[in-house]
Design brief:
Blueprint lengths: L16 E5 L10 H7 L3 E5 L8 E7 L2 H10 L1 E8 L14 E3 L28 H12 L3 E5 L13 H17 L4 H15 L20 H17 L3 E4 L5 H5 L2 E2 L5
Parallel strand pairs: 1-2, 1-6, 2-3, 3-4, 4-5, 6-7, 7-8
Length: about 260
């Protein structure tokens, strides 16, 4: 199926269990057999999740520093979804990218609804887990399972060993390809300073070491709590395998890998 608009996503996987893949370090706790299982499930990848699982059904990102590397080494069975700023030079259709920049809003819980028109909002501009949750609901999920969304650790899974080497190589290659696009180069440099080698690129954004969401944990917890209440009222189950996560604290059910 070709996806030309937000409405094209509606109920494509009605009644399914949808797995959301984040970038938290806890995703490395998944048993190898579970990763194999994901290859036959409905999945939504986010940001750099393709470093962990190369192909998912959908992929969503809000920054060019995530989308462009995904084009380099990630793949999708359905389509990519992008919330970031529109660029006229980029071929959205030929890269199988659904451009939802105009739908993208900061979390406003009144905007958390299934779309009736193409212009209806997609929440979660400030946190990819909220955006991917909204997409899963639009797709018709009856159960949403979160992998790699602990939102408590100071590192991502790609800070470790093989994954760290892989993401460094990938980001250098892709960044250099877009060296003449200043906005995109800046996006890559900011990501590197924040997540790969803190404060290593002069002039790029250099926050205190650690992830942004830790500074706004209570606000993010409130957002997830309200979103989960809405989903539960609509008969959609939310699940995590990690008890030490914002998701469990916000009301997601806890399951074990063998359930």
């Amino acid at each position: 199926m070709k996806y030309n608009s937000y409405l094209d996503l509606k109920d494509v996987y009605e009644g399914s269990t949808v797995y959301l893949l984040g970038n938290g370090a806890d995703i490395l706790d998944l048993p190898p057999s579970f990763r194999e299982k994901l290859e036959n499930e409905v999945t939504i990848g986010t940001n750099a999740s393709h470093i962990f699982l190369q192909e998912t059904n959908f992929y969503i990102a809000g920054h060019w520093c995530h989308l462009l590397p995904h084009l380099y080494s990630g793949s999708v069975k359905d389509c990519r979804i992008f919330q970031g700023p529109h660029k006229s030079f980029f071929g959205y259709e030929e890269n199988n990218v659904l451009d939802l920049e105009s739908n993208n809003v900061k979390t406003c819980l009144g905007d958390f609804r299934r779309p009736e028109e193409d212009a209806d909002p997609l929440i979660g501009a400030e946190q990819i887990g909220l955006s991917s949750t909204h997409i899963a609901w639009v797709l018709g999920a009856k159960k949403i399972i979160y992998l790699g969304f602990d939102c408590k650790s100071l590192s991502h899974f790609y800070s470790r060993g093989y994954y760290n080497s892989k993401i460094k190589d990938e980001y250098v290659r892709v960044r250099n390809f877009y060296i003449d696009e200043p906005d995109i180069k800046s996006d890559f440099d900011d990501f590197w300073n924040i997540n790969i080698e803190p404060n290593s690129i002069p002039g790029a954004y250099s926050p205190d070491q650690g992830t942004f969401y830790l500074k706004n944990y209570d606000m993010l917890l409130g957002s997830y709590s309200e979103v989960f209440k809405k989903l539960n009222s609509e008969g959609v189950e939310t699940v995590t395998y990690n008890e030490n996560s914002i998701l469990f604290e916000a009301g997601a059910a806890l399951e074990s890998f063998d359930e």
